[in-house]
Amino acid sequence: MDYFLEQIRTDSRIPAKIYVDMTAERRHCPLHFHNNLEFDLVLEGSITGVCNGITKKISSGDFFFVNSGNLHETISDTANRVKTVIVLLSYDLLKKYCPEIQQYSFCIPAGSEARNKIQLLLRSVGTLFREHENFYELEITAVLESLCLILLRECRIRKTEINTPLHDQKSLANIKAVLAYMEANSAEELSLSTVASQIHMVPSYFSRFFKRVTNETFYTYLIKLRTCRAYQELMNSDKLITDIALDAGFLNVKSFISSFKSVYGETPAKYRRQHEL
């Protein structure tokens, strides 16, 4: 997946991007946001999800939910293998039935009937997507439309009912602009001062602002961003490790190997060999 301001292309006949049975012993998707609604259903193991600064541990059978535009990140439990169904639901599908959708957000309380129904629908999506039977796209679309119906009827709340201080709104807008810029330019030579200038902050203040909002230093986040992008290339191409490192923005392959090993527990070459299909 591509992250940070994530540009999501839905599957051609399905109004969502779907990932099924992703397995990893270590995985961290750094702070990012996108327009799609995200549902991460845990089938095995557990994950930690962070959304708008709130941390939640999601165990097998439950799901992590993210509203459109919310800043979030996910971290897999390193003690166990993790299997998930990830559904990135098209915002346009909701807008099709509710043109004023931008006025609303969604709340799916733990233990609610709506949450139980959504969990079953997500399981169904995962099964249909994995089995790929004739006309599976049509069947998945029908399930997703049922999911939309539950969201709109049972989980919709006006954004005016959510109290967000004005200064927090400004901070949110600024950090989103920064993350989008960093994602678009992560392979380039990015400095603290260059990124700070994008939101007209002096570097010293920006450094404190970035740490306060993301709970990461600027350079720590940048390395995680580049490592995550390199991971995608490593697992989805036959490029040389050196080329992957340089394409992701690392100055040399040694720094990439060190960063990768700190996240995934193995060198890139060994990890690729162990997880080859």
Strand content: 15-25%
Characterize the quaternary organization of these chains: single chain
Characterize the overall form: globular
Largest sheet: 4 strands, antiparallel
Q: Give the helix proportion (percent range).
A: 40-55%
Q: Which structural class matches the secondary elements?
A: alpha+beta
Give me the strand/helix succession: EEEEEEEEHEHHEHHHHHHH
Instruction: Give the overall average pLDDT.
Output: 88
Alpha plus pi helix count? 10
Q: State the distance separating the first and last CA atoms.
A: 18 Å
Contiguous uncertain segments of 5+ residues: 1-9
Number of separate strands: 10
Strand order of the largest sheet: 1-8-3-6
Rg over CA atoms, rounded to whole Å, is: 19 Å
Structure commentary:
Helix content is 46%, strand content 21%. It is built from 10 helices and 10 strands. With 277 residues, the chain is α+β, with helices and mostly antiparallel strands. The N terminus is likely disordered. It has a 4-stranded antiparallel β-sheet, covered by helices on one side.
